[in-house]
Amino acid sequence: MGPEELQDFTGDVMENATSVAEEILKKQMTQQLVSALEVCARCGICAESCHYYASEPEMKHIPATRGEALRRVYRALFDPIGRIFPKWVGASKLTEEELNVWVEMAFARCTLCERCTLNCPMGVDTAAMMQTVRKILTATGKAPEILVQLVDAAIERGKNPELYREFFLEQVAELEKELQEMTGDPKAHIPVEKVGAKIMCVPLSGTHTILPAAHIMHKAGMDWTLSLFEAANYGVFLGDITRAKEVAQRIVDEAKRLAVKDIVIVECGHAYTALRWEAPKWFGGPFPFRIRSCIEMIDELIATKRIEVDPSANSEPITYHDSCNLARKGGLLEEPRRILASVAQDFREMVPNRHENYCCGGGAGLVAVEEWRDIRLKAGRMKADQIRATGARIVATSCDNCRLQITDLAEHYSLDVKVMSLAELVVRALVKKERDAPLPLMTQEDKAHISPMQKG
Amino acid sequence: MLGWIVILSFLFCIFMLLQRTVSFVKVQNKRELAPPKFNPLSGILYSFTLGMAPWAKESTRRHWILYVRGILFHVGIFASFFVLAISPWISLLGDWRYLFSFTIGVGFAGGVAGFFIRMFGKEKALSTPDDYASLALITLFQLTALAFSSIDAWSNAFYIITIIMFVYIPFSKIRHFLYFFFSRFFFGVKYGTRGVAGFHR
Predict the structure, then answer these.
(1) Which residues on A lie below 8 Å from B34 (Cβ)?
(2) Total domain count for chain A?
(3) A157 and A135, same structural domain?
(4) Is there a single domain that holds both residue A124 and residue A262?
(5) Closest to A119 (Cβ–Cβ): which among B52, B57, B70?
(6) What is the pLDDT of residue A283?
(7) Pair (A254, A387) in one structural domain
(8) Domain around A70
(9) Are residue A413 and residue A329 in the same domain, yes or no?
(10) Number of alpha carbons in the 13 Å side-chain half-sphere of residue A158
(11) Which of A39, A86, B102, B152 is 20 to 30 Å from A280 at the Cα level?
């Protein structure tokens, strides 16, 4: 289904949700999706790989069970035996009730982390199937309202940037003062809309994502500019490529207008994976600039000694949580570890880690949906156990959703840990001559600031 | 006569699977278009080789007995097909035919075990009647292949089961073997390109 066709579906309230859903499924087919639908042997070996099942061993938490929900409909539509003898192959027509069950299954009980895919001998891509289910639910008006509002607000900002540009520039001017205080350099500057800058840094809502990156880039003497737009792309969580592309389009257009060479995404898992790996598919090819995560940039700055760091500044035991988007789906496995090896004195790995790491339970937009808070906290038990086992006092992570979720997990499971971003740890470790004032950690005010902005 | 029907059923099976393959290829391929971090070929090679090793995944490390059972079951199937292919000339194998009998026997045991696991394990809730029928048919295919590889007189039973199996494959869960190659290929491309899985690691 092309973006325009999907727009037709998303534009209207559905009269007959099930027939629209089936129509979407028919037009949505890709080779990757057909493979995922056909290849599963229903062996159930994927069960424990899912953090939901590991935390609450119930049938509904087995990835293959989730996949079967979509397969039943697929067989009823595409399998010759499924059409003649539906019970024989487990085929069934989609019903309104089934669609309602899908909402929690796809949005609350799967974070699209792909841990099951890596653990499946067949390589069944359950996340792709759940993305399809999410797309169907979005098109039939059943997606969580908050996610729809978030993405629509982002698109609206892209259509009318002049409406909030002045306010944004005022905020940046305030931030600049903080930056000057932190760096002790009255000339420290946060450039915005700088034509010809080498790097365009795309932040998230909230100063805690801008200041550390600005501090590091200032210290490294980089030629950069701050994007007018935030990196978060909730269109991806809706499975709605049309909206996701519109959100990405704002950043792509700005980067082209400013003729930058690199886009650097601050520490955000889904934003990085969306723009680095998925967006080229939406736009039909690669971009005329590089897409990088700021952890790749920081890794390079440390390796090339453009910034000097002192690990004794971070003497507490530190562990690192691999965001699923950055690690398993994004390939940033060693970069954060090299950074931590430079800036931390006592780094302790979680087990398992890297691409085998457990999802924290807050991914794929779940952290933004308040009514599913209990579900995500239960699903985060494995992560809480992993953190506790390390004995670390600081959990470093490179994703804001993970950060919020782990902060909640720390409270819920009584973990005595502080959650910090890698960039914050790097700023703490910048050698003394370069570090004049401590960087404030994310405050309650910051946290309060994130939600309204993210909620549009 | 039965031999010719086996060939006809085999051709039918191949035709139906080819038709499925053609339909599959016509569907849109959501290619990776981002500049790769690593060579996707490395990921593809890994996906079909070491990526299938029991120690490569947490799930198969944890359930290695189940996984090895599955591997032996499939090795038994390949051995059964080999025996089928050479069935008119099986006597030429001499005593080597008993090596195949042994391999198929182990595969058959894997099939029977799989049946019980599916009936009494958590797979039960995931299974459809076709899952049982497919497994039963393949296991029966191995049983008759085992009998035939030991005693020539079992050829008719072997051929009859083979004919039923070839006709049933395109409409059943057994066809998942066709998609296995596509699925592992896409797995290799995606995670290889992104530097998550591959020989570079």
Answers:
(1) 276-281, 286, 291
(2) 3
(3) no
(4) no
(5) B57
(6) 98
(7) no
(8) 3-143
(9) yes
(10) 22
(11) A39
Do A153 and A293 share a structural domain?
yes
Which residues of chain B are within 8 Å of residue A279 when distances are taken between CB atoms? 34
pLDDT band at A172 (very low <50, low <70, confident <90, very high): very high
CA angle A265, A268, A213 (to 5 degrees): 50
Over residues A149-167, the pLDDT tens digits come to 999 999 999 998 888 899 9
Other CB atoms within 10 Å distance of the CB of residue A296: 23
Domain harbouring A164, CATH code: 3.40.50
Q: Measured between alpha carbons, how far is A161 from A172 in angstroms, rounded to an integer? A: 15
Do residues A372 and A298 make contact, with C-beta atoms less than 8 angstroms apart? Answer: no
Rounded to 10 degrees, the C-alpha dihedral A351/B198/A333/A355 comes to -40
In a domain? residue A170: yes
Q: What is the dihedral of CA A49, A398, A154, B35, to 10 degrees?
A: -80
Nearest Cα to Cα of residue A397 among A352, A359, A434, A432: A359
Using the structure block, give the residue that is written with the tokens 């192959």. A89
Question: In chain B, where does DSSP find H-type helix?
Answer: 2-26, 40-48, 58-62, 64-85, 97-120, 129-150, 155-168, 176-193
Task: Label the pairing between strands A394-397 and A262-265.
Answer: unpaired
B124, B130, B175, B181: best mutation site toward chain A, by most A Cβ within 10 Å? B130
Nearest chain A Cα to B32, which residue? Answer: A281
Prediction pTM value: 0.93
Residue (of A235, A254, A252) closest to A193 by Cα position: A254
What angle in degrees, to the nearest 10, is found between the helix axes of B129-150 and B97-120? Answer: 160
Asked if A382 and A54 count as a contact pair (C-beta separation under 8 A), the reply is yes
pLDDT digits over A61-75, tens only? 999 999 999 999 999
Same domain membership, residue A257 and residue A277: yes
Reported ipTM: 0.96
Tokens read off for A447: 């946290």
Task: Clarify whether residues A168 and A287 are in a common domain.
Answer: yes
Let me know if residue A442 belongs to a domain.
Answer: no
Rounded CA gap, A42 and A67, in Å?
10
CB within 8 Å: B126 and A64: yes
Q: Is A161 exposed, middle or buried (0-12, 13-18, 19+ CB in 10 A)?
A: middle
Is A84 an interface residue toward B (CB < 8 Å)? no
Picking from B189, B185, B193, the residue whose alpha carbon sits closest to that of residue B37 is B193
For every residue of A172-224, DSSP letters joined together read HHHHHHHHHHHHT-TT----BS-TT-SEEEE--SSHHHHHHHHHHHHHTT--E
Distance from CA of A276 to the nearest CA of B (A): 7
H or E, element range at A272: helix A269-273
Q: Which of A30, A280, A331 sits opposite B195 (nearest CB)?
A: A331
